[in-house]
């Protein structure tokens, strides 16, 4: 059995990753399982939340011992689905701005060794991120700008840290493309090539 295709969408909160994941499920051929930060939040014990969604800044060192384990569990689940022939799209927000470096992305890349992975950077200008946060309405989980603090520090940290080291197979800008257009761009990359190599390159990087 051929392994299923894996697409990892990496970007800041409100950059549009979840919408792209849904568009991939709806428009790309085959069966696509949606595993990522939102889905994983439902199975993470409340005392460990936000789990893999822990934001940059080293604000919760008490949770950091669990974050690599949670990521390992998620990526092992992604690998298991792929080995069964199921396609997987996973939206995440990788960064290494904890109270100390954890090198989680490099380890996650090693866990998918030998499997077909397309690593997609989901970009969005901070102005649009702030607009989407403000438009969230009753959703209080997102920090929003105010007159006194128009660009809150947590938002700036996400924007600065989530795309390090910036090794991708493909990047999309959700301020310029709809989720469906992003999905179509991803599909074209899978069809036309070249062969994705970003996760292979990340797996070879040395921690530290």
Automatic annotation (TrEMBL):
Pfam families for the chain: CPT
Molecular function terms, GO-annotated: ATP binding; transferase activity
Keyword Membrane: no
Active-site positions on this chain: 38
Source species, domain of life: Bacteria
Positions bound to ATP: 11-18
Annotated keywords: Transferase
Cited InterPro entries: CPT, P-loop_NTPase
Name of the protein: Chloramphenicol phosphotransferase
